[in-house]
Amino acid sequence: xxxxxxxxxxxxxxxxxxxxxxxxxxxxxxxxxxxxxxxxxxxxxxxxxxxxxxxxxxxxxxxxxxxxxxxxxxxxxxxxxxxxxxxxxxxxxxxxxxxxxxxxxxxxxxxxxxxxxxxxxxxxxxxxxxxxxxxxxxxxxxxxxxxxxxxxxxxxxxxxxxxxxxxxxxxxxxxxxxxxxxxxxxxxxxxxxxxxxxxxxxxxxxxxxxxxxxxxxxxxxxxxxxxxxxxxxxxxxxxxxx
Length: 242
Description:
- Belongs to the GST superfamily.
- The protein is of the alpha+beta class.
- The chain has helices at 11-16, 31-40, 68-74, 99-108, 120-146, 154-183, 189-203, 208-211, 213-223, 226-235, and strands at 2-5, 19-24, 44-51, 59-61, 83-87, 94-97.
- Strands 1, 2, 3, 4, 5 and 6 form a 6-stranded mixed sheet that branches.
């Protein structure tokens, strides 16, 4: 299922903008770049994927136009979302994978917005945030909870991974709560990624607003942005704060 989005912008910027295609799945971590694309007001296309196996972790086109095998061979060798195809009218598309790379690349298309920071050190801080969220909170925490087979073999081994995962997730959320209290600032790339994990925390039954009030307050502000509301509406996953 393909969706194309045209955004109002200057003629010069429209001519310079690359052709962007986001491969995504509703409610997955690809919500973060989906939000960012709306935030940047650049034209883009999305291609909706769905799990290709009951256990998840592999994807194919939601409309049946390509298989998981085709997706791995042509778009993302790992078979996961998100993936971003970046091309121009004269050059073939280059595929960008991994969340830190996708988010920081998209932010670089509108440097005047400063969504990934202003100056090299701030941008390095954004990469550090995104790498930690991707590798630790998502990869180890939620990955252990939802995909224990990545870390252990056998029923007992997987059970132990699942049992330990919530501790990792809570530890990460505690660190987020502390760091948001120290940093604050304008809404930025990392906040769109943090929004995904706040949603997932609610999804697994954690009392997010009660346990992490700074995090919740920040996400309420984030969800108030038109870009977030548009992406959430397209994905049909519902708002958290009404």
